[in-house]
Structure formats: structure tokens, C-alpha cells
Specification:
There is one protein chain. The chain contains eleven helices and five strands, in the order αααβαβαααβαβααβα. α2 packs across α3. The radius of gyration is 22 Å and the shape is elongated. The relative contact order is 0.13. The model has no long low-confidence stretch (mean pLDDT 91). The site of magnesium ion has 6 residues, from α4. Magnesium ion binds next to α4.
């Protein structure tokens, strides 16, 4: 009898933790308070509608934008295909790299830190990038944002999803390394990017393998990753992108 009650208390604790981790309790409190206050004639339908609203806007009632993360190695074609997605679907393209390249121009310690990280293929501290993304996204909460090149590390993804909104899905551009290097070196002939040179490319690829690839496994656990083969010609890759995206929308 004592063992049974100990077991029950362990189960209870686990159940409490589950409810708290997944914010189930505040959702039910919200829904119950809502129907008590409004006394609708079809309370279950009203609860379902409120639940859908909550899913879109969060418990704080603030509207959240829709986010699609676009990830893949350096030169995988993220930027190229984001531009096409903007034209095809009216998404808003936010390249974390572009935001950081603009921010590094400022004459400040932060600007210098960003410049150094980019040249060395290191990851800029997450709070800097998240704050730039937040500012850019505040302008239009109805938009569907393609966040290109972010998150670079699992903890950045967790922080973004906690503070801003969970991503709808992740488009992952897959391509062999030798093709990536060729593309970047070719672009380096004209791009003026401080990281499109042999030495920086090596470092970018190492950072990608060690720190950024685990992000894909992380989102894969939530069944959110759509893999796109990006090794073909521009047209072939764009076809793959269109097929993937239209199956997800
Ligand atoms: N190209 C594209 N597709 C092609 C195809 N199918 N066939 C032939 N050529 C193709 O393409 C790269 C080049 O390849 C172009 O010349 C294109 O014409 C050609 P692009 O579409 O630009 O590829 P993309 O994946 O966008 O490559 P990019 O170099 O931008 O990727 P990175 O992830 O390396 O760069 P990003 O700008 O995102 O980041 C730069 C640095 O900023 C990072 O290394 C890091 O230091 C910092 N950063 C952070 O710290 N945090 C962040 O969140 C983001 C960036
Ligand atoms: Mg890019």
C-alpha cells in the first residue's frame, strides 16, 4: 500500500512536470476562464476556436509572425532561392548574414566584433542576431518570414523560438562540400565579401559542421525539416524548392 502511494506520487510529479513544461495548465485556465466569462451556447466549439487563436497568437495574446528557417552550408543556395520564394509567394526574406553585414559597418565594439566573427567564419553571439531579427520582424506581424542562415546553433534556435515564435518548418539545403567551395570561390571573384576567400571558407565549413549541422537534427526531432537537394543547376534546385514548399503550405 505504501509502495503504491509512493508510485502514485512519482507519477503525479511526472504529470505535473509534463503539464508545466508544455504550458498545458495556463492554456486550460485561459480556456475555462474564457467560456465562463462569455457563456457561449456552444462552449466546446468556442473552446476550439479560442485554442486556434491561442496557437496563432500565443498566451500573451500578441500576434506572432510566421517563420520559416532556411538553413544549409555556406554557398548552398539559401539566398538565391529565398529571393525566388519572395517573388513566388510574397514571403519576406530576412538574411541574418545581410543584417549582420549591415550592422558591422557601425563604428562600435559590437560592429568590430561582428566583422571579426564573419571574417573568421565564427558565429556572432546569438543575442546580437536575435535582436536584429526582432527589430526587422516588428515591422509587419502578418508577414511570412524566411529567416535565412539562422539559427546557427541549437541554443540560438531555442532562444528564438522561446522569445519570438516557434518556426513553422525548416528548409534545409543539402549540397556536397566540393560544390560549395567552387561556388563560393567563384562568387569571391566579384562579391567583396570578407569571407569569400579560401581561408575563411575553410573556417566557415568547419563551423557549419561542428555547430550548425546539429540544428538540423534538433528540428528533425520535431519533424519540421524539409530537405532539399541543392547540388544541381539553379533551375533544378528551384524546382525542388517549389515542390517542397507547396507541399508544406
Ligand atoms: N549558386 C547558388 N545556387 C547555385 C546553383 N544551383 N548552381 C550554381 N551556382 C549556384 O549562393 C552562393 C553562390 O552560389 C552565389 O554566387 C550563387 O549565384 C551561386 P547563395 O544563394 O548566396 O548561397 P547561400 O547559401 O546564401 O550562401 P552564403 O555564402 O550567403 O551562406 P553563409 O551561410 O555562409 O552566409 P551568411 O551570409 O548566412 O553568413 C555569413 C557569416 O555571418 C557567417 O559565416 C557567420 O560568421 C555570420 N552569421 C552569424 O554569426 N549568425 C547568423 O545567424 C548568420 C550569419
Ligand atoms: Mg546567403
Amino acid at each position: 500500500c505504501i509502495n503504491q502511494s509512493a508510485m502514485d506520487s512519482v507519477k503525479m510529479e511526472k504529470a505535473e512536470k509534463y503539464l508545466s513544461d508544455h504550458k498545458i495548465r495556463p492554456v486550460f485556465e485561459y480556456l475555462t476562464a474564457h467560456i465562463i466569462k462569455t457563456r457561449p451556447s456552444h462552449p466546446l466549439d468556442a473552446m476550439i476556436l479560442s485554442l486556434q487563436e491561442l496557437k496563432a497568437n500565443g498566451l500573451d495574446g500578441k500576434k506572432k509572425p510566421t517563420v520559416i528557417f532556411v538553413l544549409g552550408g555556406p554557398g548552398a543556395g539559401k539566398g538565391t532561392n529565398c529571393q525566388k520564394l519572395v517573388q513566388e509567394y510574397g514571403f519576406v526574406h530576412l538574411s541574418a548574414g545581410d543584417l549582420l553585414r549591415a550592422a558591422k559597418q557601425t563604428d562600435s565594439d559590437e560592429g568590430r566584433l561582428i566583422a571579426e566573427c564573419i571574417k573568421n567564419g565564427d558565429i556572432v553571439p546569438g543575442h546580437i542576431t536575435i535582436s536584429l531579427l526582432k527589430q526587422a520582424m516588428n515591422k509587419d506581424l502578418d508577414a511570412i518570414y524566411l529567416i535565412d542562415g539562422f539559427p546557427r546553433e541549437i541554443k540560438q534556435g531555442i532562444e528564438f523560438e522561446r522569445d519570438i515564435t516557434p518556426c513553422r518548418f525548416v528548409l534545409f539545403f543539402e549540397c556536397d562540400e566540393d560544390i560549395l567551395v567552387k561556388r563560393l570561390l567563384k562568387r569571391g571573384e566579384t562579391s567583396n565579401r570578407t569571407d569569400d576567400n579560401e581561408e575563411s571558407i575553410k573556417k566557415r565549413l568547419a563551423t557549419y559542421h561542428n555547430q550548425s549541422l546539429p540544428v538540423i537534427d534538433y528540428f528533425d526531432c520535431y519533424d519540421k525539416v524539409k530537405k532539399i537537394n541543392s547540388a544541381g543547376t539553379m533551375d533544378e534546385v528551384w524546382d525542388n524548392v517549389k515542390k517542397s514548399v507547396s507541399s508544406l503550405l
